Amino acid sequence: xxxxxxxxxxxxxxxxxxxxxxxxxxxxxxxxxxxxxxxxxxxxxxxxxxxxxxxxxxxxxxxxxxxxxxxxxxxxxxxx
Length: 80
Hints:
Ribosomal Protein S8, Chain: A, domain 1, 36% helix, alpha+beta, four-stranded mixed beta sheet, globular
């Protein structure tokens, strides 16, 4: 299982559905940290992803990736 999910160029609703399935699968696979690639764009997807991750029961914390990890186009999430 890949430690990253790509949501670039998707509409918010389908992207969050894909993210939910991915987080469940990643948790079942034993991953503890994942990369959510949402792109920079207007920031709409980044904001939606951040809000979603902050409420997801499998996510312990999330934060913007460092410049070396993808900067503003990537969010890192730690899983339970």
